[in-house]
Design goal:
This protein is α+β, with helices and mostly antiparallel strands. Helices cover about 15% and strands about 40% of the residues.
Length: about 280
């Protein structure tokens, strides 16, 4: 599937601010059959944009607006091709007992630990073991955790914020895609399954197929020995497919915030975000 993504964010300030320094993580990556054909980033007021890769190899664009300004608008446009690469549910993978060895692999270490929004408390571990009862291998256990969250948690828009911790989500049994990704990551990590957060987009095509879908989206990836990272979307209870566009990964949301920055000055902020994901002619 070929998709065009328009992502526009605007900050309106009640008083002029200055010395604004910002990072944008909005460029879709190239991996897992996904290809980014084009990407553009525009900032108003006009700013010089530089680029680097962060610790988790996500593309980051940095820009600063030193002069006084009463608004900041960031617009990114991407054209991306995606593909389906689902793994059959009956696929035989290593048993859960083999996961202990992964703790010694440097590239997986961060994805087996606590992080800013992810906890590994004893009651999270109990919840995870209840969810995978009867599952014999890593792949089936990962699917069971995903389905447990999909069926046991309610999708309730605006019930949480971007700073909500997964323990609060477990307590209230509701949240949005970011929250469900954090809960799944925490449950998987307590089982010693490496899990990481994915930031991206989703396209609800055909109409109505994905209930409660949002254009900006989050899910998680689990590491299956011998097969690598596999994307699972607990919000929709399904594997990641051609309707998902991946931007980047991290331990949790804190590592892959789409836009973050700071400025000098005191002002009330009005935030407006528009995201539009549409099919592009092949």
């Amino acid at each position: 599937m070929k998709l065009r993504i328009l992502h526009r964010t605007r900050y309106d300030y009640s008083n002029p601010v200055k010395a604004s320094y910002n990072e944008a993580r909005l460029q879709p990556c190239e991996s897992d059959g996904q290809q980014c054909h084009s990407y553009s980033l525009k900032v108003m007021p006009s700013a010089r944009i530089s680029q680097f890769n962060d610790f988790y190899n996500n593309t980051v664009h940095f820009f600063e607006v030193p002069q006084p300004h009463d608004y900041l608008e960031i617009e990114s446009i991407s054209v991306v091709s995606t593909s389906d690469h689902e793994l059959p549910e009956e696929t035989e993978t290593v048993p859960m007992s083999a996961l202990a060895e992964l703790a010694y692999e440097e590239q997986l270490f961060d994805f087996l630990q606590r992080s800013s929004y992810v906890s590994m408390e004893p009651h999270v571990r109990r919840l995870a073991f209840d969810a995978i009862e009867g599952c014999g291998n890593v792949w089936r256990s990962s699917l069971a955790v995903m389905r447990f969250i999909h069926t046991q948690f309610a999708y309730v828009p605006f019930s949480t914020s971007v700073n909500t911790h997964m323990l609060d989500v477990i307590s209230q049994k509701s949240g949005v895609c970011q929250d469900f990704a954090h809960v799944m990551i925490g449950m998987c990590r307590t089982l010693r399954i490496p899990a990481r957060y994915v930031s991206g987009y989703i396209c609800s095509i055909p109409a109505g197929e994905l209930a409660a879908a949002q254009a900006s989206h989050a899910w998680c990836e689990v590491y299956i020995p011998g097969l690598g990272w596999r994307g699972l979307d607990p919000t929709h209870g399904r594997q990641v497919g051609e309707q998902h566009v991946k931007i980047g990964t991290g331990r949790d949301y804190a590592d892959i915030v789409p836009l973050k920055g700071h400025f000098r000055g005191e002002a009330a902020i009005k935030l407006t975000v528009d995201v539009n994901v549409t099919p592009e002619a092949q």
